[in-house]
Amino acid sequence: MRGWQKIGGVLLLMLLLAGLTGCGGSNPQGNGAGAGTQANSSNTSTGKPRYSVALEATFAPFEFRDMKTGEFTGFDIDLIKAIGQVEGFDVDIKEMGFDGIITALQTNNVDLAISGISIDDERKKAVDFSLPYYQSGLVVAVKADNNTIKGFDDLKGKKIAVQINTTSAKEAKKIPGAMVTELDKVPDMFLELKNGGVDAVVNDLPVTAYYIKQGNNDVKIVGDIRSAEYYGIAVPKGKTEILQKINDGLKALKANGQYEELYKKWFGQEPPAFLPGEPPQQKS
Predict the structure, then answer these.
(1) CATH architecture of 136-229
(2) Where is the Solute-binding protein family 3/N-terminal domain (predicted)?
(3) 168 within 8 A of 99, measured Cβ to Cβ
(4) Closest CA to 223 of 138, 136, 134
(5) Angle at the Cα of 195 (from 206 to 151), degrees rounded to 5?
(6) Nearest CA-CA partner of 186 in 199, 173, 203, 209
(7) For the chain, which has fewer Cβ within 10 Å, the N-terminal or C-terminal residue?
(8) pTM, entire model
């Protein structure tokens, strides 16, 4: 009797172990940073390729969260989804800090990034860029009652807030004697300005203009636009298939009028003639 009890116990133990192996032995895909980042992964409901898209969602009107729904919205969101529609792929949004986006692309943790990323020579060494889809520039913002700072030339020796690892930060650091504070998110910069922690904010024109338009009349833009720059959609080096789809999609949206519709929706004006789908003309 004891022998059968022992054998029965061993059999029971083996069955339990087999059950546990069946439940937890595999490594299913989850919602972590690496999930859904392979270019050949597909959406099981549509059968389309599914690309993970990195962005930093405090850069209105390009990307931000709708206060009512909590969903991502903005010009960049609409644009990448429209590209996906014409090129036959789905997108999986991955929110992260702006300073981590290039690294995420380099390590193939995401398939592409659209987050108001300026195309510059330093970034082109790390990632590949699409054709430009937006022309921007940098401006100075101060408190509405500040009448001493009237532009970039008045920022010498001043305290300036910028977003970390941006072209705004690079430009501000060129200013003699400037004390530059780099912050993670756009709202943090303007909060620092309002609280008196800095004298000015250097930021992209459309983002600053949109911020003021939302009822923040205690802030104003002063001076001229500096450092005209172009935004591009970034992909990891060598991902030529994805890059080709992005460029073809931009051209298709320009041809069918969707790009113009989206531009008017978010910026209330006609887009520049060259955008998107063709490189800007160099001034002679």
Answers:
(1) 3-Layer(aba) Sandwich (3.40)
(2) 50-270
(3) no
(4) 138
(5) 45
(6) 203
(7) C
(8) 0.77
